[in-house]
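Researcher: Go.
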Amino acid sequence: MSYRIVYDLAAVRLPAATLRPHVADSSFYADQYLLMELGGDNDNNVYEGRGSLRARSWSLIGAGQSWEIMREVVQYAASCEGGGMRFSGASETQAETYIRKCRTVLRDAVGAQALLDRGMTCTGHFALRKGPVSAWLQKRVDELSTIKAPERTGETPVWSWLNLLRDPKDAAIFLAYSNLDDAPVYNRATVHGPCHERHSIMKGLTPFVERAA
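Model: Structure:
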């Protein structure tokens, strides 16, 4: 049976104070987080290089306040039931174990520069959802367009090449407006980073703590 293998998790904490100057969004009263997961399929036919390492890649699986991300994590954890997802090296992983691990990683979230220094990148992209555009939705599009002009693919506005780890403005745009796209968050970002390290990418890093003004 095919199942997803989770190899590693990483989290970044983005201070609300660095986001607020770029986007007047009410959600930025609290710090924001990005939760990323390194995973792959157990399919024996999917290998990298000379066939000794299973293919795996990083994905953004959560963005927003910690409670918003944990709400998504609980849904992902359902895949552990019945063996659909497990941590690397485990014969099975309980949903509670996956949830607890994600909560711990979020608690110990690091600053963006710490992961950049270890070769991690995260690029956001999103498009206006298809279908009728309500007055509220049009207002949001107009707001965003004054902050960052969209690229266009046909009649659909598209925003891309948002550097979520390096540019606070890009991160603020993504966090405030990427829900204009109804695609799952893991389809709204591309993450690259070390995939075959012996230790977790966050090993030895100090959790981010914002300095008092």
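Model: The first strand starts at residue 4 and ends at 14.
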